[in-house]
Please model this.
Amino acid sequence: MTTHPGSCHCGAVRLALESEPENAAECNCSLCRRVAALWHYCPPAQLRVTGDLAGYVQGDRTLTTWRCANCGNVTHWTAFDPDYPRVGVNLRLFDPALWQDLPRKMIDGASY
Model:
C-alpha cells in the first residue's frame, strides 16, 4: 500500500494516508460548504496525523472537525462514537494528482 503524504498550508500538521481514494465526497452541510473540503472516508488506522491541532464540535455533537492550530486549514474529522468505523480526511491537503480526477460524490448533508 502506498502512503500518501499531505500537510496543512504552513506545514505544522502532517498527514499520512494509507488508503487509495476511489472517489471524493463534497458535502453541502453548513460547515463543509464553508471550509470547501473534499472528503475521503477511511478506517481510522489508515490515517496518521501529527502536529498542533484544534478541534471544533458542531451543535449535534457527532464529530470533531480538526484544523491546524497555526494556519487554520481543516485537516480531518473524527466521530464522537469511538466505534464509528471511519474518519474523513480533506483530500485538498494532498498532491492534486491524488484527487483531481476522482469522480465526485455529492453528499446532501444540509438535509440531515
